[in-house]
Amino acid sequence: MPENAVKGPASYFPSIEKKYGRPVSEWLEVVRASPLTKHMELVSWLKAEYGLGHGHANALVAHVRAGGW
Length: 69
Prior knowledge:
globular, mainly alpha, 0% strand, 4 helices, 69 residues
């Protein structure tokens, strides 16, 4: 793996954009705008409301909760 390879939740971002057709910045805003606060509540909500897969939803929530852009 290259030294500058993206790791962690952000490694899912290219596939999220490709699969769901929206930029990651929009998905991150969706997560931030939600009134839900618990990690798994947010993951479940993204899956139910937007049809995201578990890994993709988890990556978005983890990134936001870690203070990511």
